[in-house]
């Protein structure tokens, strides 16, 4: 059975609003974040899901419960939390100012693009950006490309096992993780720079096939376009 996966990015959080690095660290959803999610939840209220899943971070868990409570056509039991679908880990930079973090990574990589992360990544490529992030991290805890790739593969394998008898599921995850997953599994992607960062509350759809193959078929749709 092929399983359709609705990947939802969590709503805006306090750290998003305060321009702070937010990977494995957590902060609560804002009022705007909740309001945006309610629009997404209403747009999906008549979509039948066999199950709903979430990253194990609180902002994702709060988001999936908003989706569950608004849905009128699905019978969802206990939400299963999947740590493999956490956000990218930024190590010692967690909770720091985003602009200062990007500037430090650019300095470590030896380029002069300051705080514009898009230009930094376009110059370095995503793999070298991940390596520069790990190198710039004083404790070298940040995930590099290999570590993140391995975690994504484990996540897809685990999801495949869990959803073998499910036709459609919803899974709440995180912006950088969803974007990186899309770069890896979307045929329309030719690299980092043609894909915008997914919006809070947006929906990205994928297909998980019988043989375990995963592909992205639709990216970063907002409530009005669902």
UniProtKB/TrEMBL annotation:
Active site positions, chain numbering: 10 (tele-phosphohistidine intermediate), 87 (proton donor/acceptor)
EC top class named in words: isomerase
Database matches in Pfam families: His_Phos_1
Entry annotated with the keyword Magnesium: no
Keywords for the protein's UniProt record, in alphabetical order: Hydrolase, Isomerase
EC numbers: 5.4.2.-
GO cellular component, one term: cytosol
Biological processes per GO annotation: negative regulation of glycolytic process; regulation of pentose-phosphate shunt
SMART domains: PGAM
Matching InterPro entries: His_Pase_superF_clade-1, His_PPase_superfam, PG/BPGM_mutase_AS, Phosphoglycerate_Mutase
Presence of keyword Isomerase: yes
GO molecular function: fructose-2,6-bisphosphate 2-phosphatase activity; isomerase activity
UniProt binding sites for substrate: 9-16, 59
Domain of life: Bacteria
PANTHER family: FRUCTOSE-2,6-BISPHOSPHATASE TIGAR (PTHR46517)
Protein name per Swiss-Prot or TrEMBL: Phosphoglycerate mutase family protein
Originating organism: Lactobacillus amylolyticus DSM 11664
Lineage, broadest ranks: Bacteria, Bacillati, Bacillota, Bacilli, Lactobacillales
């Amino acid at each position: 059975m092929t399983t359709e996966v609705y990947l939802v990015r969590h709503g805006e959080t306090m750290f998003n609003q305060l321009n702070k690095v937010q990977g494995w660290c957590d902060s609560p959803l804002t009022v705007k974040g909740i309001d945006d999610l309610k629009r997404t939840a209403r747009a999906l209220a008549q979509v039948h899901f066999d199950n709903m899943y979430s990253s194990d971070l609180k902002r994702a868990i709060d988001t999936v419960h908003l989706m569950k409570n608004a849905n009128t056509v699905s019978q969802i039991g206990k939400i299963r939390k999947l740590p493999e679908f956490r956000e990218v880990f930024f190590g010692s930079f967690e909770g720091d100012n985003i602009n200062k973090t990007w500037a430090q990574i650019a300095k470590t990589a030896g380029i002069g693009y300051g705080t514009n992360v898009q230009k930094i990544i376009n110059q370095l490529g995503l793999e070298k950006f991940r390596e520069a992030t790990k190198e710039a991290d004083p404790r070298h805890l940040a995930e590099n490309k290999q570590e993140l790739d391995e975690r994504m593969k484990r996540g897809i394998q685990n999801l495949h096992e869990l959803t073998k008898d499910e036709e459609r599921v919803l899974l709440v995850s995180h912006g950088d993780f969803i974007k990186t997953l899309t770069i890896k599994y979307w045929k329309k992607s030719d690299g980092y720079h043609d894909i915008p960062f997914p919006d809070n509350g947006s929906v990205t759809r994928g297909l998980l096939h019988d043989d375990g193959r995963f592909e992205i078929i639709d990216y970063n749709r907002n409530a009005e376009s669902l």
